[in-house]
Amino acid sequence: MFPLDVHIEGRNLEILPAWREKIEEELARLQKHYLNPILHARVELIGTEHHRLGTFEIHLVASVPGDTLTVIRQGEYVLPLIVEALDVLDRRLEEHSHIQQQKVKVHEEFAQRGKVLRVFPEKDFGFLETPDGLEVYFHANAVKKGKFTSLTPGQAVKFAMEEGEKGPQATWVRVE
């Protein structure tokens, strides 16, 4: 999954294919690991004239639901600078994700019981089944304590459900 809108620009330098590939690869990795999508990402690489601070800057702006995350870094070499900036964005996305999870905590009394119906590990999603036969979509990020890879069909779970764009989906899933 890739951010909906990505702009990669160079100022005072030309973006090399290896740099563009690394940026796109890392953004795709970040997009896959967080429940909140990156809606827009703008990466600007700048060839500067500031010799003491390094000859390059990277400005990275990522829009996520409810917030805009910004990273600015300076250095002598572009590829390590890209990696460093995207690592910082990774940490900020993790912090943002934790804050959002605390805001949207669903109380256990609203939890439903069900079982795992199907799991697609290569696509990071699956389906649960409620006792009345309703199929509920869930993403790997909704599984508490990172136990997505250990889920098997028929396994008992607790989960919270909401209506998604394409039908019911689990906001969190916990193995019983």
Percentage of residues in DSSP E strands: 35-45%
Task: Predict the CATH topology of the largest domain.
Answer: Double Stranded RNA Binding Domain
In total, the number of domains comes to: 2
The count of strands amounts to 9
Superfamily at the CATH H level of the largest domain? Answer: Ribosome hibernation promotion factor-like
What is Rg?
A: 20 Å
Which CATH class of the largest domain applies here? Alpha Beta
Enumerate the spans where pLDDT stays under 50 for 5 or more consecutive residues. Answer: none
Class by alpha and beta content: alpha+beta
SSE order, one letter for each helix or strand: EHEEEHEEEEE
Average pLDDT number? 86
Strand and helix layout:
Elements: E1 5-11, H1 17-33, E2 40-47, E3 56-64, E4 67-75, H2 78-103, E5 112-120, E6 125-129, E7 135-139, E8 156-164, E9 167-175
Parallel strand pairs: 1-2
Antiparallel strand pairs: 2-3, 3-4, 5-6, 5-8, 6-7, 8-9
Helix pairs in contact: 1-2
